[in-house]
Amino acid sequence: MITKEKMERYGAIESYIIILVDRKNFEIQNSGRKRCKGALETQRQIDQLMDEKKEIERELERIPNLRIRTALILKYKYRYSWKTIAQKIGMGDSEDSIRIAVKRFFRKGK
Question: I need a labelling partner for 103 at 20 to 30 A (CA). Which of 27, 34, 43, 50 fits?
């Protein structure tokens, strides 16, 4: 079930993966035995986050309402404002109407 908290985490996962990849590359470049163990642990974290991200994306794909699904992705993955989301979606939506529709979607899921 998609929750607001899960979507907020989804938005942060991508940034965190980038940080971890940089850290892993640094650990490999400066590898001694201890650092290689660190790189393996970092890769495990990356894999875990990638799995979580894919699971959230599968849940998003199961949302039948394309308008809500698009709004969720634009808001939480790409961090667009409600105004920009309304403009991109079109369909005569105002920023308030799309924000309220998403809020109702989350409330309905509880």
Answer: 50
